[in-house]
Amino acid sequence: MAEIRNCSARVYDSSIRTSFMCSKAAKVERDGHWYCTIHDPVRRRAAQEKSNAAHNARMEANRRASALEEAMSMLGKEVFAAYHDDSTTIAEFGDVVANLCEATKAAIAPPPEAP
Ligand SMILES: [Zn+2]
Questions:
Q1: If you measure from the C-alpha of residue 40 to the centroid of ligand 1, how many angstroms do you get, rounded to a whole number?
Q2: What is the pLDDT of residue 33?
Q3: Residue-averaged pLDDT of the chain
Q4: For residue 82, what are the contacts with CB-CB under 8 A and spacing of at least 6?
Q5: SS3 10
Q6: pTM of structure
Q7: What is the maximum alpha-carbon separation in the chain?
């Protein structure tokens, strides 16, 4: 019969400001210590990495949304000004629109990969 071991993680309870040994049955051994599925360092690290990736994705989505909003605001103002400037030629107006479309595209482009 397999030996039943308790998890070797210490759990801190902030409400009573003390820590104690986890009372759950250990399921996995990591570097000579046994852990329950909640305190398994490999699972915890994987969960943390997943959480970090989700956080980074949300931050990047927010950054792109802000950059797009800023670029669209700039696009609108410059196109409006060029449209209402009687001296603007059709070619110049086209250039204003093209330049600002490029600025919009650059604003929402993903950041370069870290080396
Ligand atoms: Zn545990």
A1: 7
A2: 96
A3: 90
A4: 88, 92, 93, 96
A5: strand
A6: 0.61
A7: 92
